[in-house]
TrEMBL record:
It comes from the Bacteria. This is Uncharacterized protein. It comes from Gordonia defluvii. The keyword Membrane applies. The chain crosses the membrane at residues 12-34, 46-66, 72-93, 121-140, 146-168. Keywords: Membrane, Transmembrane, Transmembrane helix.
Amino acid sequence: MHPLLEPWANFNVAVAGASAALAGLIIVAMSVNLDGTLLASPIPARAGASIGALTLAVAASCLALIPDQSLVLLGVELLAGGLATLWIALLAVRRIYRARSNVALDPQRPSPLRLWWPGKVAMHLAPPVLFTVGGGVLVTGNAHGLNWIAAASIIAIVTGVAFGWIALVEVRR
């Protein structure tokens, strides 16, 4: 393990466990409420974005624990993961925006869009953007990218919990 990664070992172990558990919770919540989930058009895409961010948090934590992992290689791996997850999040944002537009056109249509839509967009874009920035900083050999990755992981967990609630409870309202 790179000497600059050693102080992060306990953090990475904790994030890997918490993120994996939350990703599993979202998958279970989606399967329990499958009918309601499929009726709310942006929910499956939002679930994909949440699961993607949490999975990247798991992967980032595990990659940082690999013996002899260099900062630059870790940066390349996280930059690639961040861009892939960002793509998934952008697809979710497109779904959120389309659902918002459809509701505006048909006010009689029941809507799962109870929250402010820019908050939903930010919820799904923040983790992949932070992972991408962190990966980019690490590619330059700068260890400060680890702080960006830590922020991305924490925000992925917080937004994962929020989306877990949406998938379990709000979809049924």
